[in-house]
Structures are given as C-alpha cells and as structure tokens.
C-alpha cells in the first residue's frame, strides 16, 4: 500500500554564526507503511532524533530541513509535503495535533505539572472530539484504562508528580493517543525505565498499535528493542542511513559493516534478554564536521578501501526492499585483493 510517510533525500543543516554549517542528516530516504513500525537505530548523535523531530517540524531554531521532501499521506487525504510547511503554520499544527503524535523518554516534556492528568486528557478530547464535561471525562477514563492505568477514574485526579515513572509514561501515551493519530513517533520512550517496566510499555505499545491501527516511528539505540517492536529498521551512523530493510532481513543478513559490527557486539544468547547499549565498535564516532565526504563509517571500518573516504557509496538494493550504502556492494576492494 501507499506509504504513510515517505522521506526522500532529506538533509538537515545546523547553522551557527561563527562556524561552518553542519549537515547533521545527509540525504536520508525512509518510508513507512500504514500500521507498521519503523525503528531508527544508532548511537547517540547519529541524527535519529533530529530526523524524527523534522517530521513534526519541531527542530531547534538553528536547524533547518535544507533539501528533500517529507511526504505525509493520511488515510483518505491528499499528500502533504511537510518539508514545505512553515513550522508554526495552521496546516502543520493540524498535522501535529491530529495526525502525528510524539512521545518522549521524559513524560514531563508533554505533561503539565500543574494540572491533573484527567484535566489534560479531557482538554485533548475537547479539542479533537468536541467532547465536553462528563463525556470528555468518560473517554479519558476509558483511554487511561486502555493504556493500563489501574483505577483510572480515581487516578485521573492525580497530578503527574503523584504517579510512578511507569504510570506517568502511560499517561503520556494516553495524551498522545487522545487525537487517534495515524503516526506515533516514539523517541526512546522506554530508555529511562527499569527492564520490567520497559517490557510492559513495549507490550502496551504493540497492543495499542493493533487497537488503533497506527504506524510508529520508533527511535532507539537498543537492537533488542528493535527486534521486539519493529517491522522495518533503518540503521543510522553520523547522519547517514547506512542500511534499511525488514527487521528479519537486516538482522539475519546485515550488509553494511557498521550494522554487522552492531550485531556482533550483542552476545547471541542474551540478544532478547539483555538491554545492551550500543558502543562496542573500535574507535569513536567522529564529530559531524569531520565526517569524510565519502562513507561516514570510513574511520572505523575494518574493510575500508580506496574510494571509501572520498566517494559516497550509493544506496544499493540488495533485494526485497533491503538497502545499504557500502562500496563493497558495488565493487571489489582492489587493495585487499592485491
Ligand atoms: Fe566500509 Fe567502505 Fe563500506 Fe564504508 S563504504 S562501510 S568504509 S567498506
Ligand atoms: Mg536522541
């Protein structure tokens, strides 16, 4: 079916008065099918959060979508290129409030500390469903119940600080779902939680996705989370999407040396049980300003050869919609053979 979200050739540039512009995200292509989950995975600073925030046009003032398109096609509506909308335009606010919601690692970034969670969700019900008073509260209670808040009717009168971390996370999810979005963007929503709560929230999101039929763009640094929640995965490194495809294809046959290194860094026996942080690869990620013109992974790649530093590898289809950017897929390493 037609993609719900299709990002083509998107570059995001950060400018500052005293330094050269920095391309934080470089010519990224991504596609998300309605009702499916795409995970963006990579180490911190690789551009995954920036990519997600660009979809909502919630970038910092010094950042800008410099090239490309972000085409959003909600069910039964015409396509809109989000990249062409002004961040504070009516059209953008309508998409942000109605069709695309976002949840974060820290629930207090979307919950107000001075209002009860019930009042906050009631207000969403009023804005989006035109419900007032008792009718709004009934829907709020039903939604809190659906996201697994026990004693939802009483808990609706609690302030966020009166709830545990896990319940606050559930309240934030309820807020995000109050507008019945077609796309939920989740930026590391389980990273700050203990392992048990993390597993419960992932289960909940999977269940809600089935109930609401929404698509998810799920940002994480954790391959275990990707395996549990995603249909598709895009691996980012230093602003590049280096590989993307179905979770099955990418996990069973990673084609980019960076993805291969990530996979190898996870002890096989505990691939699902543990939450292993990604940072196992030799060397460190260079600063964005030091990224080579060619492949971003050159300085850490065990297979780097002549064209890697200077020539950017093309996005190569290795079958079944699985793509990677690596010269090994298009040419043999001459030095290695000599
Ligand atoms: Fe390694 Fe070169 Fe492939 Fe980049 S293009 S991942 S440096 S072999
Ligand atoms: Mg981030």
UniProtKB/TrEMBL annotation:
Domain of life: Bacteria
Region forming the signal peptide: none
Keyword ATP-binding: yes
SMART domains recorded: AAA
GO terms under cellular component: plasma membrane
Record key words, sorted: ATP-binding, Cell membrane, Membrane, Nucleotide-binding, Transport
NCBIfam families, A to Z: oligo_HPY
UniProt-recorded name of the protein: ABC transporter ATP-binding protein
